[in-house]
Design a protein that fits this description.
Blueprint lengths: L1 H14 L4 H27 L12 H8 L1 H34 L5 H10 L5 H12 L5 H10 L13 H10 L2 H14 L3 H8 L4 H30 L2 H10 L4 H7 L7 H27 L22 H27 L16 H9 L1 H33 L6 H9 L6 H12 L10 H25 L4 H8 L4 H12 L1 H16 L16 H11 L2 H24 L13
């Protein structure tokens, strides 16, 4: 009788409505709206004239290739991005080798410090270097003039220059190269290095002829990521390049929305940037897809550790210098400026003040609105994107439905859309009379969901690869639908990855500037946009207070996530 009852229960469940196909259709429509619709309007407007009676035209593209200022902006942007990539590689590669393959003192603390720099918004880093190296008010130049008794116009360094821009961006993009190269060095087998040593090769010879060729794909891929980050960045160039008197293409596109606006030309200017981004991503994927080496015969030996010997002090000095330039000095400058009256004030008990904190928290009317909008959008975006990524990655990795793989393509596609390009596309798509979303918080939610979806999907997709589908198959045999199986069986097993993806998306959302700079209004200001606006007025103290609030929120999310107990006693977060 019990067997008959169980069989009847299973049959009733099988006859129940399966939500898999409706969910598939809903996700396909949603991802199409998020990805395809804005790009359609971007291309559409690039071929249209301005005005009420818009017609088809090639004038926007003609002006793009004939206007010297547009061509110069592209040339400067490409040159800047290449310089950033090379500098980031030159900094990160030796540092990764020192951390992964030598007896460098304290090396286990260096990786978490470099990883922490991912949390720092690049535009906040650029402002930190304004405080440090501006020609008139920079701390370094103030000290330089004081030491040598020079006149007020003298300076040692000038961050408002092409080289200053390259340096500032490289400081916050080198972690991409460092992470890839360090991980590649961890995986390099020691057998070939030992063979080189046995055959008489010195340490540097082995490094040059054996180790570096095996990690070269990771070096090239990391360099391409750094180039891509620099090419599509808006915040740092807007803060450092515009005062220096030159545009890169992202700031030039932004300027086309100033009065009188030229949306058609802005759309046309965004298309080549989109194509360059796709090209760089394909090159990076091709490089990482190639095997630099193959291990035969089972597990190889542990990575070989090189003794630095008399070079150890030099190595320590090099690493400390890099960490100082990328983490310690920028953070110290931000903290010092937040608690003193002006940038040039010495740090002592007489100059300490909470005036900037009082202004930001209690007097500046835009602060509370910006904080509320920022964290509300962060919570909404992280929750919605994580839920979408969970379902899409399940359908794709388990191949549950025909055509599910196309959902993965749509979920990954926004990674190829630069923030400023997406901002232009969303403005053109939703500022028209049909939707009228411009000036509302919903257009920002759409932007953040589109930007952060690839990161959430990639994390959840990787997590599903590590979960065997046997329990899901058992649930399906017992009559549960696919979504019921996902909710009751698979999701609890992936709790760690779900929380990690949520935190990653939240941190990425609250630091976004490139797309939001074109989409915010007085009623939808965000902290990142307020920081940019305050930078134009020169209120560095208030900027640093807001920057500290952003950093504390980001680190708090990561810290709490690492302390949340989950299934099996594991905790969320990277392991050193």
């Amino acid at each position: 009788m019990a067997v008959i009852a169980d069989t009847q229960t299973v049959e009733r469940r099988r006859k129940g409505f399966d939500w898999s196909w409706p969910t598939f259709g809903f996700l396909a429509a949603l991802l199409g709206v998020l990805v395809i619709l804005p790009l359609f309007w971007l291309v559409w407007y690039s071929f249209r004239t301005s005005g009420r009676r818009a017609t088809f035209t090639l004038d926007n593209y003609t002006q793009l290739v004939t206007d010297p200022t547009m061509l110069r902006s592209y040339a400067i942007a490409i040159g800047m991005a290449l310089a950033v990539g090379i500098l980031a590689c030159l900094i990160a590669t030796p540092m990764a080798w020192l951390v992964a393959r030598t007896d460098l003192p304290g090396r286990r603390w260096i990786r978490p410090l470099v990883t922490a720099s991912f949390v720092t918004p690049p535009f906040l880093g650029a402002i930190a270097y304004e405080i440090i190296a501006a020609p008139n008010s920079g701390i370094v130049n103030i000290v330089y003039r004081w030491l040598f008794g020079l006149e007020a116009s003298a300076y040692l360094v000038n961050i408002y220059s092409f080289s200053g821009l390259v340096f500032a961006i490289a400081c916050f993009t080198f972690p991409f190269v460092f992470t890839l190269v360090a991980n590649a060095l961890d995986r390099v087998p020691s057998d070939l290095e030992d063979a080189s040593s046995i055959l008489g090769g010195r340490a540097m010879t082995t490094l040059r002829r054996v180790t570096i060729p095996m990690v070269l794909p990771a070096m090239l891929a990391g360099t391409l990521i750094a180039i891509l980050q620099a090419l599509t960045m808006f915040g740092s160039p807007a803060i450092l390049a515009l005062p220096a008197g030159f545009h890169v293409i992202t700031t030039k596109i932004w300027s086309l929305f100033q009065f009188p606006p030229k949306p058609g030309l802005a759309a046309a200017a965004a298309i080549p940037l989109l194509l360059l981004t796709i090209l760089l991503l394909r090159a990076q994927k091709a490089i990482l897809g190639r095997r630099g080496y193959t291990v035969l015969g089972g597990k190889s030996g542990t990575p070989r550790v090189t003794e630095l010997g008399r070079w150890k002090p030099v190595a320590v000095l090099f690493v400390v210098a890099i960490l100082s330039l990328t983490i310690f000095l920028p953070y110290a400058a931000i903290l010092k400026t937040a608690f003193t009256g002006t940038v040039g004030d010495a740090l002592n008990f007489d100059t300490l003040t909470l005036r900037h904190w009082n202004f930001v928290l209690f007097e500046f009317s835009a602060t509370q609105l910006a904080l509320r909008n920022t964290f509300l959008l962060g919570l909404m975006t992280a929750t919605i994107v994580t839920a979408i990524a969970l379902v899409v990655s399940y359908l794709v990795t388990r191949r549950s439905l025909p055509g599910a793989q196309y959902l993965g393509v749509l979920a990954t596609a926004p990674v190829a859309i630069p923030g400023i390009v997406l901002g232009v596309a969303l403005f053109l798509a939703y500022a028209n009379p049909t939707f009228q979303l411009y000036g509302t918080i919903w257009i920002l939610l759409i932007a953040f969901m589109t930007i952060e979806l690839p990161a959430g999907y990639q994390q959840m997709s990787s997590a599903f690869q590590g979960v065997h589908p046997e329990l899901e198959e058992a649930g399906r045999i017992l009559g549960a639908s696919r979504l019921k199986t996902l909710w009751d069986i698979t999701a609890p097993l992936l709790r760690t990855s779900v929380v990690a993806a949520w935190c990653f998306v939240f941190v990425g959302t609250i630091r976004e500037l490139s797309a939001t700079i074109l989409l915010t209004t007085a009623n939808t200001k965000l902290v990142s946009v307020i920081i940019y606006d305050l930078n134009e007025s020169g209120d560095l103290g208030a900027i640093c207070v807001l920057g500290i609030i952003l950093l504390l929120a980001s680190f708090a999310v990561v810290f709490v996530a690492n302390r949340v107990p989950v299934l099996g006693g594991e905790r969320v977060g990277p392991r050193a």
